[in-house]
Amino acid sequence: MTAKSNKGVRLETDIEKCREESNWKKVIELSDQLKQKHNSQGPLCNFLLGEGKLEMFLEECPPLDTNIGKARAGLQDAKKCLLIAAGEQGVKVRISVLVLSSL
Questions:
Q1: Which InterPro entries match (predicted)?
Q2: Residues near 80 by Cβ (< 8 Å), separated by ≥ 6?
Q3: By residue range, what is the domain housing residue 45?
């Protein structure tokens, strides 16, 4: 059990480092791994996935009037992840406050 616990902590540490470096592709990859290995971290993983997808989209398509059409379609997945994170399980771990304040 300790080995599994240490792997989860290691993944969380790596995710935090990637967030600080704005390495959103790696954040998404590591969040997927964390979600698969530690299902109890679902709300956190959904938040991180949504954040990573949102940030990657903003890097590729700056918030300009010409990108409104792209944003409507391109941000659906990020919005879905963030809304799931703010759902019932997220409320239990207080993620909803973070998500709703960022929307």
A1: TTC7_N (IPR045819)
A2: 50
A3: 2-102
Exposed, middle or buried, 29 (CB in 10 Å: 0-12/13-18/19+)?
Answer: middle
**What single DSSP character describes residue 66?**
G
Task: Tell me the whole-structure pTM to 2 decimals.
Answer: 0.75
Token look-up 């989209």 returns 57
Do the Cβ atoms of 15 and 33 come closer than 8 Å? no
Burial 47-83 (b: 16+ CB within 10 A, else e): bbbbbbbbbbbbeebeeeeeeeeeeeebbeebeebbb
CB distance 37 to 8 below 8 Å: yes
Instruction: Report pLDDT digits (tens) over 26-68.
Output: 999 999 999 888 777 788 889 999 999 999 999 988 888 888 8
Query: Into how many domains does the chain fold?
Result: 1
- For the chain, helix (H) and strand (E) counts, in that order, are 7, 0
